[in-house]
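name: query_chain
kind: protein
chains: 1
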Amino acid sequence: MLITRRLFLKGTAVGLAGAAVASKWAVAGAAETAPRIHIGSCHISLAGAKEAGLDGVEVGAGGAADTLSIGEPGTREKYKSEMKETGLVVSSIMMSVFNSHPLASDLHGPAWLEQTIDGAKDLGAKVILVAFFGKGSLGSKGSVKKDDVDAVVRRLKAAAPRAKAAGVYLGIENTLPAEENMRMLDLIGSDAVGIYYDVYNLTNNGYDTPAEIRLLKDRICQFHFKNGGDYLESGKVKWEPVAAAIKEIGYKKWIVLETSNPSKNVVADDKKNAEYIRKLFA
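structure:
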């Protein structure tokens, strides 16, 4: 078949137009599937989180008992039912029990870690917040409780293989400086253990939080955001430098609201704070 110059140019134009459309859809698809920050809350139900436009919630492991609440099948079935109903997820589980029953010394500590790891696996939660405040504090800037730190390192090191097998991070939250937390992680020696970073708590303890975030980098497994008794945009913490540091380290996982509720309407206030976070990371 003889191909004229006109037909050749027409075919070339069509081909180029098709390539442009394909390229446009490829870019659009990449944008849709690119990782993004997910926003959760630790003080709202899954139904409330959906109403507030969040992606999920952080739930508590429960108070001191032979078997923590999260270790009870009935508790997890309730969460599973709510997840199915709302289409949201449980992002993480908070072990505040260690604030009053220190992991460093309480005989239940190892079993509680195991129960919570198993519970997280069952729910599909990827992070367990292991808290060290109150009686369980490991110290702060210039005041490290070495014996307690050593005991915690031993117990987390023993729990780490179970967490890794479950696909779960153990996220240490405390008021130690980043350098001390990095030393702890090095001693534990497992990529299943990281830092759960609470920006407000550490700002209040006098740390340069953007610098700490840049130092810790991918050792941060999750963030808590709050600003005292205020909305995120109007309290002590200035979030633009924090957000810049988080972007710089390439973090694109969960930010969990641990915010106050100035209006006394938790849904409205979580929605307001979530909208502020989305603007920060737009």
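note: Residues 97 and 159 are 17 Å apart (CA to CA).
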